[in-house]
Design goal:
The chain is of the alpha+beta class and 878 residues long. The chain contains 24 helices and 35 strands.
Length: 878
């Protein structure tokens, strides 16, 4: 066998198939593109699935890749064994109605035996039990001993989806030797022992499985193969585990260096070392591909990996952030194939460090609470943690269930996951109840059924006023015939110009009039079934079912909403321009007077970048760009590069908003016809809403004008306050600040003299108890901070003693007790003394043996508290 490493194997594999007229593609992102069925890419063929299903036509009928993959289904086993991994690379060659079994088998055999120089004696093959064609190719074409071609059943050698492409497969195995086998004469691939290692799987996609379970032959069958890069590297390097191959061993050695632990010396340490080694690769590539830590979806996968690695670092004695150092090692090795990780190095490390630091703040407290729970379980001889306690760890301390489960399993304990889910569901119901208690509750999914088939046609893109017919009236979730003066309810029209809240845009307001009455529309909502609900209050007369009405939106309000909504789309594109394409929308609110935009990003945007973003938005406004909307198929929208959540439930057509060529996004909202209508744009604030999510609040149009007026009014008031004019305001304020600094220096000097004088007075009045100094004094107009400073000053000027001080300021009572080191060594504890002292006055407190502080309530009992302190001190020193 050739002695080459992981990176050389990858290179040779791709070059080999390039010579066989395959289009060699770089690895696709770990984040699936336009595939809602996958959370992350976990197989080499996954990004190419649309070519197998016929949804798309490949640019070449032959392809080859080395695909990054993430699998977390058995994450609990990663580290426990040395075989499991979350991140791996899958080498694959693919044929789309081009070559088939003969070439796939021939080329796999050739690459293994000639390019990698693996001995033919070491290789075995398995085939599906009914696939005689594949068996004959192995025996007649390759010349393999018939005894080494093993027939296996559907479970082992057949690949299929519930409906769609499927077919038999043939797997190539490497014989590791009888010494690692079970010793049975029947031992062969398919045996449960460790002797035979699968290295390459060749899938022959020759059937189209229908909904009835029938396998129909495809006129043009396909090939999908997969060979684990790390696994074949282990074979060539002659090691038993992927953690021992050179490229991964370098990462493991960095973990050893950071933790000061040696691999192979202690099994519990080895588990932690393997977890950190494995997870560091997965973390690096997930962040590089735009995933940021969050509590949902792939963001949660990343968060879990970072936190799991961080915790195992802690188990190995590392009480700081450290993953960045290991990521450096990953990047240093893997950049040979993935140049983007070197380019994104600083960003990757920054995102990971922020998450590590966030976890460090929660893990200690959570571990402490969990340890208390486990101690209670041991005392009560229980082996299942109560679901309510697990939920409290999650809800109060941010301790995820999977981490609780993993820690308990290490102690051979369990968690009541059903009980945890019951408490989680109760919290969801409480939140939903609070959310649905208002008017928006009328549009909740629970109430959809009462609106039946009352379909409304939205005409608000083209009309602000129109004649309509009342087809539904509801109040208190009941259908009614009539709404009278002062009553509130829901009104449904056959067609309406009113936009229902959606896509972040608030619902329209306006007026609905009939011949008998008038209603004020205070909001417009929609249900999951697209019923358009006009939430109204009757202001005159009455409105009843079947009435012909005139419906008119508040067009002035709508115009300002349109301006803010279009500005939101420009902002989204500008954020991507400045911060990177990985920025994605995480929510928005578009109202009359403001807009709010939430987006994924790992750190504060910063003043300079915010200015840059704001400048871009305004430049697009000033460029007077035409804004258009058009309907098209989802595939057409994707081909145009339209941004949007394509996994949402759309019909055959989607609505695309185009701001010239600058921005193209899916949107069902209302917008201006030209960016110049927005007028001007101003960012008001930028903040964090959750881990990895930032929020920008902004205004446009008249909102900016009002903002400027308010700033001018504030500026004028400031000018008058400091007796300046608009031209010299900065100089005037600087002058005032300089004067204040000088006065502060003089005041501090005076306070220092007074404090020194006070210290002298207190030292002169000190008592001596058994040859040890005792000072107890009440000082007026002194807060806690000043009291502590005074206590420290007094302690520095006596050799041995106890100081008890009470400060009174703004009718509040403070205590400080401090003791010299020699007394602490003799058992004096300031915290214990102050607890009793404060209790006399109705207060409480505590602290260290050498210094403690407390608050009191009854100022009249200060002297009584001093007397108790004196007695407690005497008892200790006698």
């Amino acid at each position: 066998m050739r002695n080459i490493g992981l990176h050389e194997i990858r290179k040779e594999f791709l070059e080999y198939f390039e010579e066989k007229n395959h289009l060699v593609l770089p690895s696709f992102s770990l984040v699936p593109k336009d595939d809602k069925s996958l959370l992350l890419i976990g197989a080499g063929m996954a990004p190419l699935k649309k070519y197998y299903t016929g949804e798309a036509t490949p640019e070449n009928s032959r392809m080859a890749t080395s695909q990054k993959c993430i699998r977390t289904g058995d994450i609990e086993n990663v580290g426990i064994t040395d075989r499991h991994a979350t991140f791996f690379e899958m080498l694959g060659n693919f044929s789309f109605a081009d070559y088939f079994k003969e070439e796939a088998i021939q080329w796999a055999w050739e690459f293994l035996t000639e390019n990698l120089q693996i001995s033919e004696d070491k290789l075995w093959a398995t085939v599906y039990k009914e696939d005689d064609e594949a068996k004959d190719l192995w025996i007649d074409m390759i010349g393999m001993d018939p005894d080494k071609v093993i027939k296996l059943g559907k479970k082992d050698n057949f690949w299929e989806l519930e409906v769609g492409p499927s077919g038999p497969c043939s797997e190539i195995y490497f014989d590791r030797g009888e010494n690692v086998g079970c010793g049975e004469s029947t031992c062969a691939p398919g045996c449960e022992c460790d002797r035979f290692l699968e290295v390459w799987n060749l899938v022959f996609t020759q059937y189209d499985k229908d909904s009835k379970g029938n396998y129909n032959l495809l006129p043009n069958p396909n090939i999908d193969t997969g060979m684990g890069l790390e696994r074949i590297a282990a074979v060539l390097e002659g090691v038993d585990s992927i953690f021992e191959i050179e490229a991964i061993r370098e990462i493991l050695e960095e973990v050893e260096k950071i933790t000061d632990k040696n691999y192979g010396k202690d099994e519990s340490n080895d588990i932690s070392i393997r977890i950190i080694t494995d997870h560091s690769r997965a973390i690096t590539f997930l962040v590089s591909d735009g995933v940021v830590p969050s509590n949902e979806g792939r963001g949660y996968v990343l968060r879990r990996l970072i936190r799991r690695a961080s915790r195992h670092g802690k188990l190995l004695g590392v009480n700081r952030t450290f993953l960045g150092e290991i990521i450096d090692k990953v990047i240093g090795s893997w950049k040979v194939e993935y140049k983007e990780i070197e380019e994104k190095k600083d960003k990757i490390k920054k995102i990971v460090k922020i998450e590590e630091e966030r976890f460090q703040k929660t893990i200690d407290q959570g571990l402490e609470i969990l340890e208390e729970y486990m101690e209670e379980m041991r005392e009560s001889k229980l082996n299942i943690l109560d679901g309510e306690k697990a939920f409290k760890l999650y809800d109060t301390y941010g301790f995820p269930l999977d981490l609780t489960r993993e820690i308990l399993e290490e102690k051979e304990l369990e968690v009541d996951e059903k009980g945890f889910e019951e408490h989680m569901e109760h919290q969801r119901l409480m939140a939903r109840s609070a959310r649905d208690s208002g008017e928006a509750g009328w549009s909740s999914d629970e109430n959809v059924r009462i609106y039946k088939d009352l379909d409304s046609e939205f005409k608000g893109y083209d009309f602000i006023k129109m004649d309509s017919k009342v087809i539904g009236l509801f109040t208190d979730e009941e259908e009614i015939e009539k709404l009278g003066l002062g009553e509130k309810g829901i009104l449904i029209l056959d067609k309406t110009p009113f936009y229902a809240e959606g896509g972040g845009q608030v619902g329209d307001m306006g007026i609905i009039k009939s011949s008998t009455g008038k209603a004020k529309v205070i909001d417009t909502q929609s249900t999951s079934k697209d019923h358009i609900l006009h939430i109204v209050k009757i202001t005159d007369g009455y409105i009843q079912l079947e009435d012909q009405v005139e419906s008119q939106i508040d067009s002035n309000r709508r115009e300002f909403i349109k301006r803010n909504h279009t500005a939101t789309h420009i902002l989204h594109r500008a954020l991507k321009d400045v911060l990177g394409e990985e920025v994605n929308q995480a929510g928005s609110v578009v109202e009359r007077d403001r807009l709010r935009f939430d987006f994924t990003f790992h750190e504060p945007v910063g003043k300079e970048r915010l200015k840059q973003i704001e400048n871009i938005v305004n430049s697009k406004i000033f460029d007077s760009i035409e804004v258009t909307t058009s309907e098209m198929s989802i595939d057409e929208a994707k081909d145009m590069g339209v941004v949007g959540l394509f996994d949402a439930k759309y019909g055959e057509l989607v609505r695309v908003l185009s701001i010239g060529e600058y921005s193209k996004e899916l949107c069902g909202g209302t917008h201006v016809d030209n960016t110049s209508e927005i007028g001007i744009f101003k960012i008001i604030s930028e903040s964090s809403t959750a881990a990895g999510v930032r929020r920008i609040e902004a205004i446009s149009s008249i909102g900016v004008y009002n903002y400027i007026r308010n700033v001018e009014d504030t500026f004028d008031n400031l000018v008058n306050m400091v007796k300046a004019n608009k031209n010299n305001i900065v100089d005037r304020i600087n002058s005032i600040l300089i004067d204040n600094e000088e006065k502060d220096r003089e005041l501090n000097q005076l306070r220092s003299k007074m404090a020194s004088s006070l210290t002298d007075d207190l030292l002169e009045s000190k008592e001596t108890l058994n040859g040890i100094d005792f000072i107890a004094e009440k000082i007026d107009n002194m807060d806690m901070s000043s009291l502590r400073e005074l206590g420290d000053d007094l302690k520095s000027r006596i050799d041995s003693g106890l100081i008890v001080l009470a400060g009174i300021k703004d009718d509040k009572l403070y205590f400080v007790v401090t003791a010299t080191k020699d007394l602490v060594s003799k058992g004096i504890h300031s915290g214990n003394i102050i607890r009793e002292v404060a209790r006399v006055t109705g207060g409480s407190g505590g602290g260290r043996p050498d210094m403690a502080q407390a608050g009191g309530k009854d100022i009249n009992k200060v002297e009584e508290s001093f007397q108790l302190a004196r007695e407690l001190f005497k008892e200790k020193i006698e």
